[in-house]
Design goal:
By secondary structure, the chain is mainly alpha-helical. It has one domain (7-89). The chain has helices at 16-48, 75-81, 83-89, and strands at 53-55, 61-64. It has a two-stranded antiparallel sheet with strand order 1-2. A hairpin with a 5-residue loop joins β1 (53-55) and β2. α2 (75-81) packs across α3 (83-89).
Length: 112
């Protein structure tokens, strides 16, 4: 059985590999920045204690940290309780996701 061209792996050459490396580096930087952001937010929230607002010297609110109520739909429970109704309304769509993979082996090759 022959696979359609879109299912055959490509062998990446330059400049494609440069673009790939740039994306990989950017994603690594984003991870580092997100971790840093979470650490800073934790420090600020701990520093606020039970206070809901922080003001600067001019009296301007610069941070808020409040409780709020959030409603959400429990789709798993709804599916269990109303399987027929759930199936009547559930819609499936096909999406294409670009994921960085490093270390998996390609078996069939096509140059790009």
């Amino acid at each position: 059985m022959t696979l359609p061209d879109q299912q055959k792996p490509l062998v990446a050459k330059e400049p494609f590999m440069n673009i790939f490396r740039e994306l990989k580096d950017i994603k690594a930087e984003i991870r580092i920045l997100k971790d840093r952001e979470e650490s800073i937010k934790l420090s600020l929230s701990e520093g606020m204690g039970d206070h809901q607002y922080v003001c600067n010297d001019e009296g301007t609110i610069i941070l808020t940290y409040k409780f709020y109520k959030r409603n959400f739909f429990d789709i798993k429970q709804f599916e269990q309780d109303n399987e027929k109704l759930y199936n009547d309304y559930i819609k499936t769509s096909e999406v294409r996701t670009l994921r960085i993979r490093w270390g998996k082996t390609c078996h069939k090759k096509k140059n790009i």
